[in-house]
Amino acid sequence: MAVTRTLRQLRRAAGAVKRQVAPSPAVAAWRHACREADRTPRRTPGTIELGAYTLQYTDLLTLCPQWKDIFVDRSLAFHSDRDAPRILDCGANVGLASLFFKSCYPAARITAFEADPAIAAVLAANLERNGFADIEVVAAAVWKESGTLTFYADGADSGGIAETTAASVGSSVEVSAVRLRDHLDDGAIDLLKLDIEGAESVVLADCAPALHGVRAIHVEVHEFDRNRRRGPEILTLLRDCGFTYAITHVTSLPLRQVGGGSAQNSGPFRHHSTAWVEAISAWRESAQ
Amino acid sequence: MRGTLRRAGRKLRAMRRRLFQDPETAAWRRAWHRAELTPRFTPGEIRMVDYDLRYSDLLSFCPQWQDIFVRRVLAFRNDNPAPRIFDCGANVGLASLFFKRAYPAARVTAIEADPTLFAMLRTNLRANRAADVETIQAALWNSNGTLAFQCEGSDSGMIGTLPGAIDGRSVTVPSLRLRDLLEREACDLLKLDIEGAEDTVLEDCEPVLHRVAAMVMDLHEFDPRTRQAPRVLERLTRAGFSYAIDEFVPLTWREPLAGPQSPFPGRAMNWAMTVRAWR
Question: Does residue B72 sit at the A interface (CB-CB below 8 Å)?
Answer without folding.
Answer: no
